[in-house]
Design brief:
The chain is of the alpha/beta class. The chain has helices at about 50-65, 95-105, 140-150, 165-175, 215-225, 230-240, 255-275, 305-315, 345-355; strands at about 5-10, 15-25, 30-40, 45, 50, 70-75, 85-90, 115-125, 130-140, 155-160, 185-190, 195-200, 205-210, 295-300, 320, 330. Helix 1 (about 50-65) crosses helix 3 and helix 5 (about 215-225) crosses helix 6 (about 230-240).
Length: about 350
């Protein structure tokens, strides 16, 4: 079914703004238009847009240069302040949940309920007296600043969701080979300033966290260790291969050893998340999950050569780098370089409006 409005997905990150437009195909969607532009310096701090006018004008310019015409946008909230977790509420109906969500959510979300957008969805029973609820909350100022930036660009905002939901949609949700209804995935999106870690068990979100160990930290480590500028440090990352460390200590490659130290910090945080998962009950009140079946890496930081095999060797679970176009659901219209490993969020946002229109 065609949409009456012309939608566009916009992923506003610390380093870059990605914009994508999708069309329906016989089996899913195709990304027909795509553009990347640098995020104005200093415009985003800790996931919060502090200069919405500059971001809005950057979006407007990029769309004009890429010949993207749109009237509405889908956005994603991001950063450590975004809360996503399956929690237990007293047994109630969906209507009762809507009426009491803000009161019940106050026991879980770290920020003020009054200053947050809060939504909840019942995902199943939890024993005889409780239900599992997917609880999502984001500070209003984070969401409102992103909406304001789009308004400055001349766009109305129809959908605001979280980055991890958009990523899950573009990589896993509709791929039958992934068997998401019966497996536990750890989805790791390595961006410039943050790494988003989500655990999805049998199609249900168990937990989500954001950590500052990300691509910029690797770049900064090379800059400091070898007195490089940002351009040279970024270029240096592209020629390093972590697989070399699986058969040696990297003593003859000092830059690789520097990178490995930072990657080991990421691995430690991922292990902490896995340990936390082992204490959490399954949806429905079952026993805690013992293992993650597979870890999926995406985002610009996942382009680091050998990263998947290195993490796999450290954690002892299957690890795979997946891009937007590695599955059957979303196709590349020829406008996105590579397999779309760093376009996962924007692709998920671009197709979001069509799901309600079907």
């Amino acid at each position: 079914m065609a949409l009456k409005k012309s939608p566009v997905g916009i992923d506003i990150g610390h380093a870059n703004i990605r914009i994508a437009q999708a069309e329906r195909t016989a089996i899913g969607f195709q990304i027909m238009k795509y553009v990347v532009t640098e995020t104005p310096k200093g415009a985003i701090r800790d996931g919060q847009i502090v200069e919405p006018e500059e971001v809005g004008l950057a979006i407007k310019r990029a769309m004009k240069e890429a010949h993207i015409s749109a009237s509405v946008a889908s956005l994603a909230a991001a950063g450590g302040a975004v809360f996503i977790r399956t929690v237990q509420f007293p047994k109630m109906t969906a209507q009762m949940l809507r009426d009491s969500i803000r009161f019940e959510a106050g026991r879980y979300i770290p920020g003020s309920v009054d200053d947050s957008y809060v939504v909840g969805e019942i995902v199943g029973p939890h024993g005889d007296t409780q239900i599992d609820v997917l609880l999502v909350a984001s500070p209003k100022d984070i969401v409102n600043a992103r909406i304001r930036a789009c308004e400055i660009a001349g766009l109305n905002v129809d959908y605001v969701e979280t980055e991890t939901f958009a990523t899950y949609r573009s990589l896993l949700e509709f791929d039958p080979d992934r068997e998401v209804g019966s497996k536990t995935y750890m989805l790791v999106n390595i961006g410039a300033a943050n790494t988003a870690v989500s655990v999805i068990q049998n199609g249900v979100y168990l937990m989500h966290r954001s950590m500052p160990n990300a691509g910029n930290m690797l770049t900064d480590a090379l800059k400091q260790a070898f007195k490089l500028d940002t351009i040279d440090a970024e270029a240096g990352k592209t020629v390093l291969d972590l697989e070399e460390l699986l058969s040696g200590d990297g003593s003859d490659n000092p830059p690789l050893k520097v990178i490995a130290t930072m990657v080991d910090d990421i691995v430690r945080e991922l292990r902490r998340s896995m340990n936390f998962l082992q204490t959490q009950p399954q949806s429905g009140g079952g026993k805690p999950s013992a293992t993650v079946d597979k870890m999926v890496l995406c985002g610009g930081g996942a382009k680091l050569k050998g990263l998947a095999k290195y993490i796999q060797s450290k954690l002892g679970i299957p690890v795979e780098v997946i891009g937007t176009f590695d599955g059957p659901y979303i196709e590349n219209g020829g406008c996105v370089p590579g397999n779309g490993v760093d376009a996962t969020v924007v692709a998920g946002l671009a197709v979001r409006p069509y799901l309600k229109a079907a």
